[in-house]
Design a protein that fits this description.
2 helices, alpha+beta, two-stranded antiparallel sheet, 136 residues
Amino acid sequence: MRTRTPIGLAAAMALALTAGAASLPVTTAAAPSTPSACFWGHNVDNFAASSDEKTVNLRVGVRDVYQLSLFAPCIDIDWAHHIALRSRGSDWICEGNNVDAEILSPSAIGHQRCLVTSVRKLSPAEIAALPKSERP
């Protein structure tokens, strides 16, 4: 009667595993995603609203323009002389769809709250293509 030793069994298992691993497809690591562009809310210098009242462009610093998409039309925001940008938790606002911010805009019946659904930093080409009335 022949008995198997633990060393012989372990060697057979290792050989089986390496043979199976050779046939597995090789996957490459995904490239790291680019970080989101962010800005401090208190660094906003100017704004311009589109005529559809659902898009607001913010000038941040000298070169940067961020486009905010609103949940619903913010009535008469394209006529407002000033607005307030308020974010909950932090004044740091980043690109994306999970924005916890709102715009406060004056109206005939008091300040209205307009929820921001997404933020996107515009490229220099997109800034140049904006109509003059929508360029902050």
